[in-house]
Task: structure prediction
Amino acid sequence: MTSYTDSDLLRELEPVAAANLDRHLGLAAEWMPHEYVPWSLGRDFDSLPWEPGQSTLSDIAQLAFEVNLLTEDNLPSYHREIAVGFGLDSAWGAWVGRWTAEEGRHAIAMRDYLLVTRGVDPVALERGRMHQMQVGYSSGGKTPLRVIAYVTFQELATRIAHRNTGRYAEDPVAEKLMARIAADENLHMIFYRNLMAAALDFDPNGTVQAIRDEVLGFEMPGTGILDFAEKARRIAEAGIYDLRIHHDEVLTPVLRQVKFFQLEGLDAAASQARDEVAAFLEGLDSFATRQAEKKANRDARKAAAQA
Result:
């Protein structure tokens, strides 16, 4: 058991948060959402109602944009979660405010792009927003250590999902927008990853167990979206965000960066937790490989049938 409180942890890590906030402010580029939207394409919906054929996005690209945007729409819930986890004092509070302000641009820009280009059904999108925000998001009362572990992985996963959605859209305007949003998410991930590394120095045993809990139980914050499981499955099949990406581009690089498997002097509980992470990664790798092989076989059969 740890002999410190959550307040002790936050006080110990506050200088790290302050230093990384300063680093973030020095790197974060100011950008204006309105400059990433092709306003000249806009038309009034009362005179020209939306129809599916107006969108230049594929069905999967529309779906990925919808999921990404509705996930971002839950910002009030996310603000509450990190404000409760970190508090609003000192550098922690300054970070919570800055992070929230930067994240707020993402939904603004994505929604403006989709409405101006008629990329998705605006009625369905608004109904999805109403549902998603009423469901909200709750981390289940995670400790600060678990919050740090979760958001490190989640910010990286979100960065990749946004970036790949932009590429998949086959629209240079969409790709530029999503690359800009992904750049924000990358800086957010680095802030949290540096905190994770500092937490491993302060309390390696507790932090390893927190990382274990978040790796094994990881869920994207968009799980409250209507039909999320089916939408996530289709997004994965398209290769926008799947288990192979989660293993290779999210979990593995973060754990490598903080030298998770090189830590020494862990107690029995932490050592077991690390072994559980290793076993989970091995199983995830194998499962992702089997999924990829099945998809390749399906694609080959489909191609043969169309030949």
The mean pLDDT is 94. The chain has one domain: 7-45+59-306.
